[in-house]
């Protein structure tokens, strides 16, 4: 079933443009105790040590998955543009701060121009940053599109978070999948 885009609520989603949110829920935690058979088969075993060791071990059963926040190509393109403008504005602001520092160095030689520039450069950076953020907001509003960060407000995601899921990183998701593969392999033995 093709859903409509979460960000504009009008265009049909394009699956390749969806935002993937890895999530995980711990279903069960069990403490691993040695079986009676295991203990009986080892007459020399130190039962206190086994109990102490096993108390630390637990088997965690969890469910992890990637939730796809539906997005259309128009919104994906708009989000990419906004990101580019943001990166440009931040880069410009950093350059102006550096320029301000250079001006501060010059101003130590009592140059009036240096003193003026060490304030003027960072000030222009802040202006560009504010203008950029406002322009991005207006641009998204003109398209009737929610900002990219609003994927965290996706109704299905909020429902799953309410059920006890938490948002994890892609790296953590890969790690849980790797762990499941190891567990499945050892269960088959
Ligand atoms: Zn859209």
Bulk shape:
flat
**Sequence of secondary-structure elements:** EHHEHHHEH
Biggest beta sheet summary:
3 strands, antiparallel
Identify the bound ligands.
zinc ion
Low-confidence stretches: none
Number of domains: 2
Key features?
189 residues, alpha+beta, 2 domains, three-stranded antiparallel β-sheet, 6 helices, 58% helix, flat, binds zinc ion
Structure overview:
The protein has 189 residues and is of the alpha+beta class. A three-stranded antiparallel beta sheet has the order 2-1-3, sandwiched between helices. 15% of the residues are buried. It has helices at 36-40, 47-56, 73-107, 112-143, 155-162, 170-188; strands spanning 19-31, 58-69, 166-167. The protein folds into two domains: 19-69 and 154-188, no CATH class; 75-149. The longest helix is centred in the middle third of the chain and has 35 residues, at 73-107. Helices cover 58% and strands 14% of the residues. The site of zinc ion has 9 residues, from helix 3.
Short account of what is shown:
With 189 residues, the chain is of the alpha+beta class. 58% of the residues lie in helices and 14% in strands. The protein has six helices and three strands; from the N terminus they run E-H-H-E-H-H-H-E-H.
């Amino acid at each position: 079933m093709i859903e409509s885009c979460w960000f504009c609520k009008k265009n049909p989603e394009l699956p390749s443009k969806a935002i993937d949110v890895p999530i995980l829920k711990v279903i069960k935690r069990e403490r691993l105790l040695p079986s009676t058979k295991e203990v009986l088969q080892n007459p020399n075993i130190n039962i206190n040590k086994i109990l102490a060791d096993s108390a630390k071990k637990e088997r965690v059963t969890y469910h992890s998955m990637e939730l796809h926040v539906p997005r259309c190509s128009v919104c994906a393109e708009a989000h990419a543009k906004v990101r580019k403008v943001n990166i440009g504005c931040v880069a410009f602001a950093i350059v102006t701060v550096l320029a301000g520092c250079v001006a501060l160095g010059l101003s130590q030689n009592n140059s009036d121009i240096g003193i003026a520039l060490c304030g003027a450069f960072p000030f222009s950076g802040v202006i560009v940053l504010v203008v950029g953020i406002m322009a991005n907001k207006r641009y998204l509003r003109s398209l009737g599109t929610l900002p990219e960060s609003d994927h965290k407000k996706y109704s299905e995601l909020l429902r799953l978070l309410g059920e006890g899921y938490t948002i994890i990183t892609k790296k953590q998701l890969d790690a849980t999948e790797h762990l499941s593969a190891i567990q499945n392999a050892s269960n088959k033995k």
